[in-house]
């Protein structure tokens, strides 16, 4: 089945690969096999091996949700949070972080542009509140599952850790709860 961009929410392969690299690094080949098996049981019909996922190709966002759900069900909350924080360290994306996010102010300014490198839906805006705090506001982002919101919270911490900020991130407002936007408060 060919899915044209714009007909549904899409996720780029690099977002899937960041999480799959974590599985490979922590659980090995068996972990990858377990993840794909669980995803297929839940209705996944995408590439059946990590090597078949193309970094710059758009895939149905449902694949991302199935990956998150399968990971959470197989390995639990603690490992899910760890995976979310480690995903930004995927080799192919670390260079972007170093280039775009050298300082917190730059990170907050550029985060909206960066969102589009992973997803073709929603908007994400960042704002530097002061030298130790920032906020992120997403619209059209957290509309599917709380696991996606949870993974983003961990991911934002992981990004900040790459530029050597010891960060706490709280998801303070969510579209899934009827709010106009989803918001995160970051403190470093």
Describe the structure.
With 188 residues, this protein is of the alpha+beta class. The chain has 2 domains: 10-89, no CATH class; 91-187, H-NOX domain. It contains 5 helices and 6 strands. The chain has a 4-stranded antiparallel beta sheet. The chain has a two-stranded antiparallel sheet with strand order 1-2.
Q: Which properties best describe this structure?
A:
4-stranded antiparallel sheet, disordered N terminus, H-NOX domain, 5 helices
Helix-strand layout with pairing:
Blueprint: E1 10-12, H1 13-41, E2 58-60, H2 61-86, H3 91-100, H4 104-115, E3 123-130, E4 133-139, H5 146-162, E5 168-173, E6 182-187
Antiparallel strand pairs: 1-2, 3-4, 4-6, 5-6
In short:
By secondary structure, the chain is of the alpha+beta class.
CATH architecture of the largest domain: Alpha-Beta Complex
Strand content: 15-25%
Radius of gyration based on Cα positions: 16 Å
Query: Strand order within the widest sheet?
Result: 3-4-6-5
Q: Considering the protein shown, what is the CATH homologous superfamily of the largest domain?
A: H-NOX domain
Which structural class best describes the helix and strand composition?
alpha+beta
Mean pLDDT: 88
Helix count equals 5
Q: Note the overall shape.
A: globular
- What is the number of strand segments? 6
Q: Total domains, how many? A: 2
The top level CATH class name of the largest domain? Alpha Beta
Encode the helix/strand succession as letters. Answer: EHEHHHEEHEE
How far apart the termini lie comes to 45 Å
Uncertain spans: 1-6
Measured as a percent range, the helix fraction is 40-55%
Largest sheet: 4 strands, antiparallel
CATH-assigned fold name of the largest domain: H-NOX domain
């Amino acid at each position: 089945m060919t899915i044209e961009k714009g007909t549904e929410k899409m996720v780029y392969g690099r977002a899937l690969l960041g999480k799959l690299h974590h599985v490979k690094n922590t659980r090995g080949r068996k972990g990858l096999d377990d993840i794909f098996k669980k995803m297929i049981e839940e209705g996944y019909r995408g590439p059946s091996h990590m090597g078949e996922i193309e970094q710059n190709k758009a895939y149905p966002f449902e694949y991302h949700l199935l990956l998150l759900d399968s990971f959470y069900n197989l390995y639990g909350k603690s490992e899910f949070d760890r995976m979310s924080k480690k995903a930004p360290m995927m080799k192919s994306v670390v260079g972007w972080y170093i280039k775009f996010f050298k300082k917190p102010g730059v990170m907050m300014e550029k985060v909206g542009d960066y969102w589009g490198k992973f997803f073709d839906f929603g908007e994400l805006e960042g704002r530097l509140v002061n030298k130790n705090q920032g906020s992120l506001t997403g619209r059209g982002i957290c509309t599917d599952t709380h696991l996606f919101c949870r993974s983003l919270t961990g991911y934002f911490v992981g990004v900040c850790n790459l530029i050597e900020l010891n960060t706490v991130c709280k998801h303070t407002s969510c579209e899934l709860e009827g709010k106009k936007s989803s918001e995160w408060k970051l403190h470093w």
